[in-house]
Amino acid sequence: MSAILLGCIADDFTGATDLANNLVRAGMRAVQTIGVPDNDTVDGATDIDADAVVVALKSRTIEPQQAVAQSLAALRWLRARGAQQIYFKYCSTFDSTPRGNIGPVVEALLDALGSDFTIATPAFPDNGRTVFKGHLFVGDVLLSDSGMVDHPLTPMTDSNLVRVLQAQCRAPVGLIDHRTVAAGELAIRARIDQLRAQGVRVAIVDAVSNDDLLRLAPALRHLPLLTAGSGLAIGLPANFGLVPTSASSALPPARGARAVVCGSCSQATNRQVAAFRAAGHPAFALDPLRIAAGEDMASQALAWAWERLGAGPVLVYSTADPAGVRAVQQRLGLDAAGHLVEQALATVASGLVAQGVRQLVVAGGETSGACVQALQVRELRIGMQIDPGVPWCHAHSPLTGPEGLHLTLKSGNFGGDDFLSRAFNLLTPIT
Ligand code: ADP
User: Fold this and answer.
1) CA distance 416 to 418
2) From ligand 1's centre to the CA of 231, what distance in Å?
3) Distance separating alpha carbons of residues 16 and 229, to the nearest angstrom
4) Which of 102, 129, 242, 392 could disulfide-link to 237, CB 3.0 to 4.6 Å?
5) How far is the CA of 148 from the centre of ligand 1 (A)?
């Protein structure tokens, strides 16, 4: 029942997990909540025992006023739990539009915290996101030359983040450039003082390597608000005297049956489904067109799984190749197809847990959202990493006893080809 150290607000669900994963790897015990929890504090105490809490919002592409209101509600909750520093997490490709939501949320959080300055850096070198002279690179190319120009909701056409953020902010936006970051903590602090004196409220910070992020972190110890992708997190636990330890990722022992629910149709998930099947594990395919025709495929999948769960992990999937997805979308419409499949897979996930599954892998961002909702999971304790950005978690659900369940939520393109088998082996190492 201790106060939390670092309070985080993430603008989407899988981004929240990515951040929590980096914090855990650097030594913080972390819990991710689905939205702002509605329980009240008693004298500032919390029933969440963690060094960091990441409140996962879905605020990246909603109306700016709503994003601000939700972020401020998260801030109030985190401060009531004693959070000493606040971290606003956005996408490592700085996904936003000229209306926001990064700028409006950053300025609203600064105002609410009574602070006059913060930094902004989406740099995450381990994932190929680097910032140099204020320009964001995705792998070897500028953001504006990456696929992000075609993003349906937040097309990113300008790589100059000072300009991008300035368009979203009332106050001046500045830059802490690579030379300053390379010179270390004192130089960064001096630059912050200089920018503050000029009336700058937010400064984009260059970082091209993990070393840059590790040099940056101690210089930010005194700031009430930090804003970044998940990369900056690698240096923050040290500011609180914490060092990497396997204890931060400890989860309760795993038990119960094992299952995978796949709704992602990404290339990586297609390869993972193929590898899992090739390894001889039983798999049941949900056909969206048969569901649309009124067949109860979720019940069929559950009856099929019931016969097999005792013998090892089972897979229920709607994963299809691009031609298969297109054919379904042409018949049903893009949104209707997505919703139909998500609901069927969520029914399968909760049915599997009711049948005794206590180790569950879910593939797909939207699919994960639907499954977590069906399982009525409110918070996730973050455990050991399976692949970059994807940890095992432990969660409580009204569908389980007090022992809860182990859950991993994999966003589409994450994970190696053998992810599905390896995930289970990691949870209970085979001796
Ligand atoms: P990712 O993380 O790969 O984007 P998501 O779960 O977020 O995965 O999105 C996949 C979407 O595709 C979901 O809305 C899902 O319901 C939908 N879907 C899954 N299988 C099929 C299919 N066979 N045909 C059409 N849509 C599908």
Assistant:
1) 6
2) 27
3) 10
4) 242
5) 20
pLDDT in tens, 384-426: 999 988 999 999 999 999 999 999 998 887 899 999 999 999 9
Domain boundaries, the chain: 6-245, 251-426
Topology classification of domain 251-426: Molybdenum Cofactor Biosythetic Enzyme; Chain A (3.40.980)
Q: Tell me the fold of 6-245.
A: Rossmann fold (3.40.50)
Tell me how far apart the alpha carbons of residues 376 and 395 are, in angstroms, rounded to a whole number. Answer: 10
Q: How far apart are CA 206 and CA 215, in angstroms?
A: 11
Atom of ligand 1 nearest to the CA of 319: 20
Identical fold for domains 6-245 and 251-426, yes or no, is no
Q: Kindly provide the b/e burial profile for residues 286-320, where b requires at least 16 CB atoms within 10 angstroms of the residue's own CB.
A: bbbeebeeeeebbeebbebbeeebeeebbbbbbbb
Cα-to-centroid distance, 283 and ligand 1 (Å)? 17
The greatest distance separating any two alpha carbons of the chain, rounded to the nearest whole angstrom, comes to: 69
Q: Find tokens 């090892």 and name the residue.
A: 312
